[in-house]
């Protein structure tokens, strides 16, 4: 496939796309991303992570990137623009209250994101899930005695963290996905991201909407955008971009929505190779 020569916006997912399996940006990828930025092309990092967990990668790249965070529920401008919030759509409390009550009653680990802080219940049974999430993302929890203190509040998003496998299927992510899919019946956005995570947010939020918000601000057309991703939460932005690239390690459902299925994985500098081949 031919890529237009007037690409003005490069959008890149973080985990398992830009980052290798150790959660790092390689030297080769860092170099290419800086070269792309030096040509006046805007680079956006688009991720399910919260803002504070993206900033270290902005530092590592050495590029003033706008960010699409929380799977598109929030869009922030460049640092030079004060990281101004350009878009923020929160989950209605009538849904979050149901999830809070459910997780407390069933002793499930719930992340509640409010004002760029992640809260969770103080409970010895949940520590292993909180440690897993912190190790993977660098997030620092604020633990509370009772998540019911957030009743009536609108979070940016929620994540239920479960076991990947369990003798009781109820305690798995895919069971929870089916349960909440039926319960909410399209009234919220559900994403299965990491094998342990079920992410719940406003029905009108995704990475595609987030990219659209920033592209409109800069008057950039869809055919001037290239996006890279690997997971289900990347599908909307791959479809929105003029060129959607699925890395080799992307799930099969993601590959069905991509314009290009790369021959390289996130451990083989896929993003850098594609950009170097078609843009630099």
TrEMBL record:
One Pfam family cited in the UniProt record for this chain: Hydrolase_3
Print the keywords alphabetically. Hydrolase
Task: State the top-level EC class.
Answer: hydrolase
Database matches in SUPFAM superfamilies: HAD-like
GO terms for MF:
magnesium ion binding; sugar-phosphatase activity
Recorded E.C. number(s)? 3.1.3.23
One term under GO cellular component: cytosol
State the NCBIfam families in the record: Cof-subfamily, HAD-SF-IIB
- What is this protein's name? Sugar phosphatase YidA
